[in-house]
Amino acid sequence: MNSCDTVIICAELTELAPFVNRTWLQECLAHRFEDSCQPPDPEKVFPTPGKELSGLRFYSLDLPEIPGKTLGVQSGVGMVNAARTTAIAIEVLGARQVLYSGTAGGLAKDSQVGEVVFGDNYVFHSADATAFGYQRGQLPGMPPSYAGNERLLASARSLLTASDKKDSSTATGAVTFKNPIFTAETELAGALEEIPARCGTIATGDSFITDSNVNAVRSAFPTALAAEMESAAAAQVAFLSQVPFLAVRCISDLCSPEGQDVYHGNAAVCGAIAAAATICLLSAC
């Protein structure tokens, strides 16, 4: 078995590109306060993958802020892709910890586009076995939800201003990252200045959440901050394998009637913000 310290998984190429190409990361972050940004084709910035397994391309990430060997991989969208990639990262590559990084829809009424959510809990919003006595979101034989790794969460909380160091279930809204994030000189030192962030529940399902289904998800999971299509599946695999897991998501849309168009306009920048937050989190561990 091979061995690596960290595997960072992204569903989309635009979410993985900031990790494999520093110029892409810098250019996208330069547009972080604009309404939308459409960078060039992300495939053009990718190097030759370090290894390929079962059709997945794993890239060795040159991230000076992060100690140890770190690999990045695109899983593809959806829960099956997420679970499959996480299992390969752990069982084949021997990952000691797994992180998901990318975009999400904002579920909280006070969500903001560009806000970072560190997942402290993961649920399946599409799972419903309540007829058999299980909680909504709980798969038979599994726990009702999956907690993010406490060591990684402690690192995430250390990046935030003091007012967010309370229990996330009672938090009334996002705060911002400390500035500067890094004490050492780095181009990421001020990258997250004025970016809102908080820890909270992430809801996962194989549906893109828009105004047609958002109320049902909010009603079933009133404390959830974000909705996407991978994290809970990866968290379940990590739970079964007893490997630390955390997802870092940047809100790209507000589950509105225009959600799909808003997402496409914000995907690259929000993917870069999530990547910067992930790098900061790992550097603080």
What key attributes describe this structure?
single chain, alpha/beta, five-stranded mixed barrel, Nucleoside_phosphorylase_d, methylthioadenosine nucleosidase activity, adenosylhomocysteine nucleosidase activity
List the helices and strands and how they pair.
Blueprint: E1 4-10, H1 13-20, H2 22-29, E2 51-53, E3 56-60, E4 70-74, H3 79-91, E5 95-106, E6 116-124, E7 146-147, H4 150-158, E8 175-176, E9 196-204, H5 214-220, E10 224-228, H6 231-241, E11 245-253, H7 259-284
Structure commentary:
- By secondary structure, this protein is of the alpha/beta class.
- Helix content is 29%, strand content 24%.
- It has seven helices and eleven strands.
- It has helices at residues 13-20, 22-29, 79-91, 150-158, 214-220, 231-241, 259-284, and strands spanning 4-10, 51-53, 56-60, 70-74, 95-106, 116-124, 146-147, 175-176, 196-204, 224-228, 245-253.
- It has a five-stranded mixed beta barrel with strand order 5-10-9-6-11, surrounded by four helices.
- α1 runs parallel beside α7, α2 (22-29) packs across α7 and α3 (79-91) runs parallel beside α6 (231-241).
- Residues 164-171 have low confidence and may be disordered.
- Pfam families: PNP_UDP_1.
- One of its GO terms (molecular function) is adenosylhomocysteine nucleosidase activity.
- One of its GO terms (biological process) is nucleoside metabolic process.
